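Here comes an entry:

___
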Amino acid sequence: MAASFVTLFQWRLNSMLLHENEILLGVKDQIKSLISQLDAAGSFTGDVGMILGRESGHGSWASELRGILRQAEDFVDDFVIRAYGQTEKDRKDSIAEFGKELQNFNSRISEILNRRPPVEAPLMLEEIQRFVRSNIPSSEDKETDLVTCMLNYINLPYDLKLSLLFCCAFLRRHYQSIDGLVRGLVAAGLVQEKPGELMEDKAQENIDKLISLGMIEELEFIRDHFRVPSPYCELSLGVMKAEDFFMSTANSDIMVPPTARHVSIYDADNTIPNTNSFLHSLFVSEASSDCLRNVLHNSKLLRVLDLKNTLFESLPDEVGKLVHLRYLGVRESYIRKLPESISNLRNLQTLYISGPGVGFELSNGVLNLAQLRHLKMSAPAIDGEVRVPQGISRLGNLQTLESIYAGSGIAKELGVMTQLRSLKVSCVSDDHADELYFSVMKLSMLRKLSLTVERGRERGSYKYENSFFPCLESFSPPPLLQTLELVGRLIEVPLWLGSMENLTKLRMCYSHLSENPTTILQFLPNLKYLQMVNAYKGRHMEKEFFRAGGFPKLEYLYISSDNLVEWTEIEEGALPCLKQLSIHDCKELMLLPEGLQHVTTLRILDMWGVHEDLIRRLSPNGGPENYKIKHIPLVKYLGHISSVPGIWTPQ
């Protein structure tokens, strides 16, 4: 991957010039000279040639270049660690030494580039077939698909190749949302940083391109989560095996090679293999605290640390020594507190904590994380909130702030955090609602907003039956808002919902409306995703809920209702773009609507927790209403009562 190493090292040097200006004043010329030298390397197929096993002079110089660039990057990272722990005098000496070593690397790279062949041999189909046969066990029919995919991979720009391999390592057992992939790519340094541009936007663009090419796809069983499909997954794993830059394994006894920089270990069973000291990304599931402590002690260059299914309640203090760390994720964990040393992570961009624990308050140390872009927490099930310290508005780079409690003055602070793009607030109550709404209306860059009302303590409060949104009619959403979630009871549908022309995703939970909410919603011009969980407390939905021409761009509709008994009709011409219909926990519903057979775009019908009589009527084995759904390619169901086996046989 020599060509990609050139690109990555250039990005790293440019990023240093942007962020480490304080310690680089004396060596800027040397850094710029090295960047120019790397520009001279131009575009070549050194990475592909090495992967395919070429042993020509071309492969030799490309391998040498890869090795020297790896040494140079490790030297740069080590220098940054040392420089920030030194006195002014020692730092001055280190910078002088650093400048000399940069000149040395420059000379060595120049000598290697002078030996590269003037014309590259074209890649041969036989080479690609040989690579596929030796690295990816497959049948003869599948081999053809893999060769085609390999050709597609070779033709990708370098940043998309990096994105695909990273996503494969990240997603193989760690399913993630697009937002999670974006944050991971940025933190790992696999997206070019440019002044005045958000790296998250570029990462999103790269992932969107991979989705459009069919190299990443959405999971059918987890909405908004993605994976690398076969055969691109097999291909990516084969490429990883050939170059040892990315690595994904379930074997905790395996030795991580010194060339590996991004490693994913799933099902670690509380053991982590001996890792090299140059890792940039580490993804681990099921590891103990002691095991993690040993790894962190030897992995000072980590930029991404993602832990899943960990049983410990606190992170080891060694985390605070990872000065290069940009992404720290502790998912599905029982963590209750963060170590005080986390305040040392001056480069941290993403802090993501989730799990079934009882929650915690963030200490004032988080206010030292000046580069923090994404503070993503899951609200604990009992208290439903995460308390952030006063002064959170000092974090001027923050784009994501989730599951926070906005009382105690935090609501007012939000009004000056105009760089926010995603905000999730829990436990909204009368004592701070007005101030919260006023602040949110100032957030002109906001794209995603989630508001959850404070839940009552009385019986049945888990469904927010007596928990009303306070004075929501005084609110007006920011103009660029694309995603909105409202969790809590509404007196009526807010009129401002009908004016949200940029809204693409809406989730209404426990609204318990007595009026038809779609009267307003079906005219939203760009709405693609609608989830209604006990949003309407009526027992009947008739044709006025889904009129002809209504919901012109809706692709996904999710309905869950304790009260719904009858859904009579969908007007022909309604829901012209619908791809998936999910009916969950509608235990009293006996009929799907007449007119569903005319929604010809429907590809998935997903039913869970529905009455067995509904399943009988829809069954392809003589069900009288099967005609309504027989055009749908994929029908899934899990019955509320499972006493009647065999009534459903897939066609």
User: Anything to note?
Assistant: DSSP finds 16 helices and 22 strands in the chain. Residues 46 and 62 are 5 Å apart (CA to CA). The two ends are 47 Å apart (CA to CA).
